Amino acid sequence: MAEGKIKIKYVRSTICAPQKHKNIVKSLGLHTLNRVVERPDTPGFRGMVAKVPHLLKIVTD
Asked: Mind listing the domains of the chain with CATH numbers?
């Protein structure tokens, strides 16, 4: 599997979200809304995004 990059955007606040969801967002390196980070395209990162699809979005350019 070729190691590519995915861009993850923080689109919704974690206020009133369960602590597990907050931990996932923080572990991805997202702190402020509308921030975009670039991470390796691995099953681990894809799984983290899949756990909180209502808070994050994968950006395609």
From this structure: 5-59 (3.30.1390.20)
